[in-house]
Design brief:
20% strand, Sig_transdc_resp-reg_receiver, 233 residues, alpha/beta, two-component regulatory system, Arc Repressor Mutant, subunit A, 5-stranded parallel sheet, Rossmann fold, 2 domains
Length: 233
Amino acid sequence: MNKPLILIVEDDTAVKNLISTTLEMQNYKFHTAETGQQAVMAAASQNPDVMLLDLGLPDMDGVEIIKKVRSWSNMPIIVISARSEDRDKIDALDAGADDYLTKPFSVEELLARLRVTLRRLSYMQSSKAADEVVFVNGDLRIDYSAGCAYMEEKELHLTPIEYKLLCLLAKNVGKVLTHTYITREVWGSAWENDVASLRVFMATLRKKIETDPAQPKYIQTHVGVGYRMLRIE
């Protein structure tokens, strides 16, 4: 993909300048907005590749901005906010955010999160991962047409629920999925708050795909929030 355009939505001048300078030093193109209204207009008119979004804007809550943008765009949205409670993270991610970075943050972490998001965006654009027949990530391979998964070319013996979990994470590789989203997609709305069952199945799935389930390489836990499949280089 061409050099991406980043939309910075931040009303704090010091933070906005820090992010802008960081992106400029990395030769990223960027556009800035200081209000929710400006953010929505810029998202529609500038066609940015990624949005960096502060939740505490003067005219509109950031979660509302996410919902508005999601009504027409799948552009990756990374929230950068001083709100650190799990509920705030869950609300933003459930609304459609792709990642959540808590203030204060290091510029190194911001750039790392941005690189992960851009890799996922590039991968989705180039291979149409949601519709591909075979998914490959490190030693993991999923053959969607055959309904089989392999680790180091050895077939994994997965239960139907484990396979659905693995496919859901794979089709959203690099993105944090909340407990509610996962349980709703796998079991249906009647079970969307059954986090205990999700943890049990996630533990059994990890035992089958991770070399060391205590230090997982493929499936990352976001405590109190959900799970993310990491892209293996």
